[in-house]
Amino acid sequence: MQNNPLLQSFDTPFGAISFDKIELKHYKPAIEIAISIGKKEIDTIVNSNDSPDFKNTIEALERAGYLVGQISSIFFNLNSAHTSDKMQEIAQEVSPLLTKFSNDIQLNSELFKRVKTVYETTDKSELNEEQAWLLEKTYKNFVRNGANLNDADKETLRKISTELSVLSLKFSENLLKDSNSFEMLLTNENDLEGLPDSFVEASAMLAKSKGKEKGWLITLDYPSYLPFMKYSKKRNLRKQLYLAFGSRGFKKNDFNNESILKKIVALRHKKANLLGYDSHADFILEERMAETPSQVYKLWDELLTHALPKAKSELAEVKNYAQQIDGLTELLNWDFSFYSEQFKKEKFNINDQLLKPYFKLENVISGAFETANKLYGITFKERFDIPLYHKDVRTFEVLRENGEFLAIFYADFFPRESKRSGAWMTSFKGQNNYDGNEQRPHVAIVCNFTKPTKNKPSLLTFDEVTTLFHEFGHALHGMFANGYYESLSGTNVYWDFVELPSQIMENWCYEKECLNLFAKHYETDEVIPMELVQKIKDSANFLSAYQTVRQVGLGQLDMAWHNLKKEINDTVYDFERKATEKTALFPEQKQTVTSTAFSHIFAGGYSAGYYSYKWAEVLEADAFELFKENGIFNKKIASSFVNHILSKGGSSHPMNLYVKFRGKKPTSKALLKKSGLISD
After folding, report:
1. HEC profile for 406-419?
2. DSSP characters over 486-548
3. Reduced 3-state DSSP string for 2-59
4. Is the distance from CB of 437 to CB of 470 less than 8 angstroms?
5. Which residues partner with 405 through β-bridges?
6. Of 132, 175, 287, 489, which one has the greatest count of Cβ atoms within 10 A?
7. How far, in Å, CA of 444 to CA of 437, rounded?
8. CA angle, corner 118, sides to 113 and 120, nearest 5?
9. What is the CATH number of domain 357-538+613-674?
10. Contact predicate 503/473, CB 8 Å
11. What does the pLDDT read at residue 421?
């Protein structure tokens, strides 16, 4: 213990994690010791001679195993943001240990007896709202994890949980390795036709960094893949790249995810049945705002009624445009990004290359900080004395309006082979207020934006600007956490509520009042012209119906896998095609599927929950209307948003929190209106 930094107090500013001292060899022993300590803490609760009550059972259980959670969060955060083959080996070793520890708690019959006694005998009126919610959640958590099962079924559940933890990790590892195994090296300058100079320069730098003597390297990382699909005039190369991207985890190689995902689906279904639910979706949605699969389908029906006809019309417009300029007779998957971008440029006289000079990454970060300052009064001070897990990471001390310390904020923006694709927010330390000793949160956002080149800084597309604001919204939810119990604090909320704070932040990116804060030309410092701001607003709903149908289609694919009532006999390809038939807008491509790379639902926390993005869009569109009506930097409304949403975490049912903020329940009308799918 003495030589393992993970088992010591971190002697750093704000107790920040000593990344500079942690080595891979420290993780497994630290987790094993933490589990041993956690078991003793559980034994103390179980063997207590005192009658079970809220403090000695529910509160004690909330705090038991704290060290396990602390160390495992550090490990798995880095396994996503800065992994290695060795780290992935350790992940495969420690995941079963952590699953067993969790199962040992959830299936401990003596412990459950105490929890059940407290649940059945406590006068709820004597508890505050947060305590009452913790009691309810704790009891339900035991029941939902098999506490009422007989011994044989408990053992079956243990095996299922252990196998699922390993399979999900393997799914994620396969996806990363399959993505990294693809490279498209261009050596002919003619193949660069249509590509922006900054992209060409970045691709040359990437080729050089990978030891290529000459040429331009294209990969499946988003900063490489997306611009190539959008700007390359070489249709054959777009096709090659698209098929590589769409076949991740689907190719007949060592990284194929087909059998893995089918096992995951089967085990989740078996687990749900064992616990008394018809499907995994029924099990998951019991603890969501949506509550039942039928409510999710109802939302989709509302959206598709308006979006599907318009999406087909949008697609026809792009196809017609492609035919007019290039004589293209059939618009295929690898054509859509390219021609829709050209069409958008012609229709609105705007494109990413026109906007990117105004979105220098450092300015956008400052803009997010200033937006938070104008809304909530908080400030961000960069620190250079806090240990980092990678040299690209930046750290900030976050201060309240009165100067009090609020949080530590880590920002990790650039792609690397050791980082999975996409963008996400996470927490290295949660918030709690045990015994009056408040622990403030340490949160991070991780993205994959284009790196600076020799001649240009990192310039973001407008989509990347909204991505940064989105993840920053999650971070604010974590930073403002103000609960007593860590398991109910910050982003520990229902999954169809967690996207509200993130998605609402995207709205500020479309407002001139906000853009003026940070959208300045990286060479001239000129503030973004009003005409460009207007074009951003005018083009905001370009292909909005198509995007709505695409998002619903992904949600329906997720629900198809997880709302099953019988065994799957179809291949992954056939199953997916049937599941997405209603929302499919392009001809089939037999080499590609979505499921084998759908890490949100097979390696993340979104199984039977991908609908959450659309559900939260309903909430955020409704909520932002209040800001629009009263001023986007209205401090009174911002304060209410902090007090009722951001600071409350999961301390109450999310609909109660939302109604306290908004004064009413939301409807889909605001979203349909915002998306241009209905008129006022």
Report:
1. EEEEEEECCCCCCC
2. GGGSTT-S-TTTTTHHHHHHHGGGG-HHHHHHH-B-TTT-PBPPHHHHHHHHHTTTTTHHHHH
3. CCCHHHCCCCCHHHCCCCCCCCHHHHHHHHHHHHHHHHHHHHHHHCCCCCCCHHHHHH
4. no
5. 399
6. 489
7. 23
8. 90
9. 1.10.1370.40
10. yes
11. 86
Task: List pLDDT tens digits, range 636-656.
Answer: 999 999 999 999 999 999 999
Catalytic residue among 62, 130, 314, 471: 471
Local structure of residue 608 (DSSP, 8 states): T
CA 642/CA 653 separation, integer angstroms: 16
Q: Tokens for 348, please give them.
A: 């609105």
Active-site residue flag, 62? no
Dihedral, 475, 557, 622, 547 alpha carbons, nearest 10: 90
Q: How many angstroms separate the CA atoms of 105 and 99, rounded?
A: 10
Cα separation of 314 and 441, whole Å? 44
pLDDT tens, 153-197? 999 999 999 999 999 999 999 999 999 999 999 999 999 999 999
Answering whether pTM is above 0.85, one says yes
Q: Which residue, among 585, 599, 593, 600, has the nearest Cα to 242 in the 3D structure? A: 593
427-469 residue pLDDT tens: 999 999 999 899 999 999 999 998 998 889 999 999 999 999 9
Q: What CA–CA distance (Å, rounded) separates 521 from 134?
A: 50
The rounded distance, in Å, linking the Cα atoms of 677 and 33 is: 56
CATH code: domain 5-106+108-148 is 1.20.1050.40
Reply yes or no on whether the pLDDT at 1 is more than 90: no
**Domain segments of the chain as ranges:** 5-106+108-148, 182-244, 357-538+613-674
Residue 143 to residues 152, 156, 280, 641: CA-CA distances in angstroms?
16, 15, 15, 33
Contact 202, 456 (CB under 8 A): no
Beta bridge partners of 429: 442
Nearest Cα to Cα of residue 509 among 468, 457, 545 = 468
d(CA 452, CA 202): 8
Q: Which helix (H) or strand (E) holds 184?
A: strand 184-186
3-state secondary structure of 383: strand
Angle, CA 375 vertex, CA 431 and CA 479 arms, to 5°: 10
Long-range CB pairs of 496-499 (<8 Å, 24+ gap) are 496/288, 496/289, 496/290, 496/609, 496/611, 496/612, 496/615, 496/616, 497/289, 497/616, 497/619, 497/654, 497/658, 498/474, 498/612, 498/616, 499/612, 499/613, 499/615, 499/616, 499/617, 499/620
Terminal alpha carbon distance of the chain: 64
pLDDT band at 209 (very low <50, low <70, confident <90, very high): very high
Sequence-distant (≥ 6) Cβ neighbours of residue 286 within 8 angstroms = 144, 277
Long-range CB contact pairs, 208-211, < 8 A, 24+: 210/183
CA gap 617, 236 in Å, rounded: 37
Nearby residues of 508 by Cβ (< 8 Å), 6 or more positions away: 371, 469, 514, 632
What's the gap between Cα 452 and its chain centre? 25
pLDDT in tens, 69-119: 999 999 999 999 999 999 999 999 999 999 999 999 999 999 999 999 999
Q: Please state, in angstroms and rounded to a whole number, the distance separating the CA atoms of residues 538 and 542.
A: 8
Residue 555: which H helix or E strand, with range? helix 544-562
Length of the chain: 680
Torsion sign, CA atoms 348, 349, 352, 355: negative
45 contacts 111 by C-beta, under 8 angstroms: yes
